[in-house]
Amino acid sequence: MEAIAEALRIEFGNTPSTIKTVARMTNTNERTVKNWFDAKNGPSGENLVILMHNSQEVLQAVLLLSGHHDLLVTMKVTATKNKLREMLEMLDELSSSETP
To answer: Which domain of life is it from (predicted)?
Structure first.
């Protein structure tokens, strides 16, 4: 439960407005969500899936907890490649817009 709580705090922060946002996102009451952030309880399976969909930090925590480090590495490599492609496209655009 602590790993999920930490992932929630990293991704969303730990303010009253954050608790409300996550409660709305999961269609859960605020007290329940506060307990997730405080690691008193963990989210149900359905709510965990919703959180994984909306939070890279929660997804990464679940992958690590479930022993799928390889999937986490693959996910990070793919994200890095995508960012690199975006940066290369920006460089190409800048290069083509330069006047000699």
So the answer is: Bacteria
Q: Name the CATH code of domain 1-67 (choices 1.10.3470, 3.30.460, 1.10.260, 2.40.30).
A: 1.10.260
**Helix and strand totals (H; E) in the chain:** 6, 0
Predicted TM-score (pTM) of the model is 0.79
CA atoms within 13 A on the CB side of 9: 13
Q: Are 55 and 62 in contact (CB under 8 A)?
A: no
Look at the block and give the residue holding tokens 């907890």: 65
Instruction: State CA 13 to chain mean position distance.
Output: 12
Length reported for the chain: 100
